[in-house]
């Protein structure tokens, strides 16, 4: 049952373009007890069908800038190869720490954006 909920929640977040895989990795490692390496690799399997679906929906809605998207995707694949090569060789505790730092950076950035938007909105009143 946890797997079904994890898939639905992560799929919704992923379809919105907000990194559903990050949530999926947390769910897989915290609630299902998977090793960090296994959780991240499982996330990659999840990523393919959800990405293809999101690309189809967003293409139909004419929301994709292909001039930017294609080069980013090409270099993203190169970065993924490099990152996967590092991750496979890295010990689990170190990988968990890097993942935690990554999540912390996202949280700080999102908090900053929220505060900036809040101040901007209240300044215009």
Structural overview:
The chain is mostly helical and 125 residues long. The chain is built from five helices and no strands. The protein has two domains: 2-89, no CATH class; 93-125. Helix 1 (2-15) runs antiparallel to helix 2, helix 1 (2-15) crosses helix 3 and helix 2 packs antiparallel against helix 3 (36-60). The longest helix has 32 residues, at 92-123. The model has no long low-confidence stretch (mean pLDDT 87).
Sequence-ordered SSE layout with sheet pairings:
Layout lengths: L1 H14 L4 H11 L5 H25 L5 H24 L2 H32 L2
Helix pairs in contact: 1-2, 1-3, 2-3
Task: Provide a compact summary of the structure.
It is built from five helices and no strands. The protein has helices spanning 2-15, 20-30, 36-60, 66-89, 92-123. It is globular, with a radius of gyration of 17 Å.
Tally of contiguous helical segments = 5
Helix percentage range: over 70%
Rg is: 17 Å
Helix/strand order: HHHHH
**Average pLDDT:** 87
| Stretches with pLDDT under 50, minimum 5 residues | none
What structural category do the secondary elements indicate? mainly alpha
Summarize the biggest pleated sheet: none
General form: globular
- β-strand percent reads under 5%
Q: What is the tally of beta strands?
A: 0
Number of domains: 2
Query: Termini distance?
Result: 47 Å
């Amino acid at each position: 049952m946890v797997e079904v909920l994890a898939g639905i929640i992560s799929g919704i977040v992923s379809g919105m373009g907000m990194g559903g895989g990050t949530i999926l990795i947390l769910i897989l490692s915290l609630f299902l007890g998977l090793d960090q390496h296994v959780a991240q690799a499982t996330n990659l399997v999840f990523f393919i069908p959800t990405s293809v679906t999101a690309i189809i929906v967003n293409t139909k809605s004419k929301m994709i800038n292909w001039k930017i998207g294609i080069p980013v995707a090409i270099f993203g694949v190169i970065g993924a190869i490099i990152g996967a090569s590092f991750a496979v060789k890295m010990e689990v505790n170190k990988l968990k720490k890097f993942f935690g730092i990554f999540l912390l950076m996202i949280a700080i950035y999102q908090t900053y954006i929220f505060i900036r938007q809040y101040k901007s909105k209240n300044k215009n009143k």
